[in-house]
User: What shape does this take?
Amino acid sequence: MKLGRVAGTVVSTISHPIYDGRRLLMCDLLSADGADTEDYLICVDAVGAGAGEVVLILDEGNGARQIVGDPDAPIRAVIVGIVDELLVDGSLHDVTGG
Amino acid sequence: MKLGRVAGTVVSTISHPIYDGRRLLMCDLLSADGADTEDYLICVDAVGAGAGEVVLILDEGNGARQIVGDPDAPIRAVIVGIVDELLVDGSLHDVTGG
Amino acid sequence: MKLGRVAGTVVSTISHPIYDGRRLLMCDLLSADGADTEDYLICVDAVGAGAGEVVLILDEGNGARQIVGDPDAPIRAVIVGIVDELLVDGSLHDVTGG
Amino acid sequence: MKLGRVAGTVVSTISHPIYDGRRLLMCDLLSADGADTEDYLICVDAVGAGAGEVVLILDEGNGARQIVGDPDAPIRAVIVGIVDELLVDGSLHDVTGG
Amino acid sequence: MKLGRVAGTVVSTISHPIYDGRRLLMCDLLSADGADTEDYLICVDAVGAGAGEVVLILDEGNGARQIVGDPDAPIRAVIVGIVDELLVDGSLHDVTGG
Assistant: This one.
């Protein structure tokens, strides 16, 4: 999994029921210490993440389908958790967004 | 998923029925704020996207097979939606092509 | 899918029947306008592509297995078509090799 | 597989039973001779790896699901072994962390 | 598939029967003309490759599982062949290691 920070939302019509009522979140991918990188992923939100929050992104189709509970869902990247604490190389990084 | 902009079409004969009557679109991959990158993907069009439009690209085989409704299709990247609105870091990016 | 140009052949003994009588082609990966990049893929040839030709490469295991008609084949990258025409940003790129 | 070095832990609530009682480890990806790179992966720990140890990372969903013994687990990167010895280009690299 | 050169061995204990008695080889990834790159993969050896030899690497879970004959193996990168000859852009590259 990778770290991401919720940067915004993407509005699009996808004609598959798994996307009804689900938000697509633009997530900036972060480095190991929580800094921004140039890369991003557009993720299905499975946890109710808000703007600025640091999240865990699982980028794998079969696992993402398990998270949304639909073995046929056309989906790959999904937010599976909000990061509460990030302890890297002995120091605690503040990852509470806002 | 990633953002792409439809840049053109690729004409090729692929001897599998899933490609009969389907367009292959050359899509420039975009950054999180909608700017061009150097990378691209050739995608199967599932939504009727036109030149210049900003689209959502799902790049995963099993999900793509669900979108085209054929569990055996030799396919990986597919356009699943046209982006109507892109709200990143509090500002609305104009992604209407033309 | 990505664009590639057939640059040569790789001779190796792979002890799986799917490789009997099949050529492994060294393909340079191309940019969206058909220029060479530094990257490559070694692909199974499913279309009879020749040296210098521009081809479509599908780089996904399950799709590649469908192309060669063997659900158990140890294979990932396969040439699925020869590109006849590449129309990008309104101009036609000459991709006929030789 | 790739080499990683355990750099820390990530605390997050993931609502899937496979994550109950399992640690998520922040792993710096290493070069072939054991040096740090800029990249990382957040991995499920299947071997009891400790901070500073050099580990083997398998980054593939179906294989990871076998390691944790749950065919439906939403998981992709998993630590499958602690590296005891790394012999590259004829010299033994010290990979014992601490 | 990609080209690799066997650079060394990795010693680690992986608690899955598929790894009993199998060597894990550190393989430098090569460019299309056989030159070293900065990247590598740790591969399961399925052909008895020796140090310095140029090999074909298949980096795909389901195909790798077919090669080792275990549909549940936690495995992704596997050496499927030793390269006998590499003919690129009309010239034969010497890839016999030593």
Observations:
- Chain A has one domain: 2-93.
- The beta strands of chain A are 2-12, 24-30, 36-45, 54-59, 77-88, 91-93.
